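Recall that a protein's primary structure is simply its ordered list of amino acids. Everything else, from secondary elements to tertiary packing, is in principle encoded there. The following example makes that idea concrete.
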Amino acid sequence: MSEIPGTKVDKHSTGGVGDKTTLVLAPLVASLGVPVAKLSGRSLGHTGGTLDKLESIPGFMVDLSPSRFIEQVNQIGIAISSASERIALADKKLYALRDVTATVSSIPLIAGSIVSKKIAGGADAIVFDVKCGSGAFLKTVEEAEDLVAKMVEMVKSMGKSSVAVISNMDQPLGFAIGNSLEVAEAIETLKGEGPGDLEDLCLILGAQILLLCGKTASIEDGQKSLKNAILSGKALAKFEELIVAQEGDPSCLESSSVLPQADFISQFFAQHSGYITGIDAEGMGQLAVELGAGRITKDTQIDLAAGLVLDYKIGHQVSKGDVLGKVYSNKIDDFTSIKNALKDLIKIGSVKPKPQPMVYNIIGSPGVT
């Protein structure tokens, strides 16, 4: 990526349920002059994929040639494409070896796989969003910190800089789970009308990116600049530029009806009164896959309209009979089994739980002591 001027910062997420961060963060930081050359992937298991979500936008092309990818970043400051088969070829062979040697979950090998692709992709600096909790493959903060320590050290040994944000995945990020549903929620967030946890995480990650690029003197100033980019419409305008450049239909920014729509929508309800004490994020992700929103194998056909939208987060008080959310499906026979499963995935208790942190730790940032 040496053909792209400026400090190129890439962001990598270890994956989570409802994680549409890239859809918000990429145009947000690009609107402030940070060149975003993002190589993304598709869904894996119960976690969604950025490329699948972008393909919910009619016409959006995710397979850019290397020359077009670079040209687009130089012209409008942002491009999001599928990873080239020519990037980090050794990693593909090593992954195949890990698969047959039962070492897919090895933390050092995971760290090497992630970092090798980012460095091979031309990143000058990297921001890692490492998720932990029920909806992530890392279940504890300690596991996340182990992975982070290895990745940050690897990047440093290559003369690059990095920051790792360890974030909470004990409940879905935002309210929407499913491709077109998450695109609609990302658009609302770029308009300043999205879920608070999603916007907060994007401001945290974005400020780290601005600091690494030398675009801001402090985390606080960076977050103010990012918030202003949302309120002024600059971030949404940059997303529109991205959509047009990659042949998508920008009218989806005005109306979510342009995005794929499910044939059937059904509400699900609270079985009793109390506080929401837990939401099984992994279970929610698996339900979305069952509805057709995720990929079980690389050849699985994804239903871009399928998914779930929750109405509440952990800590909210509900009454028996309150609507807790909606199920979106193109198969009407899904609803009974899905709604029965939801009864066990959303826990309601009599005692209000303590607030959950959005971020557990930030490692490697010059702006955090």
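Residues 15 and 137 are 8 Å apart (CA to CA). The mean pLDDT is 89.
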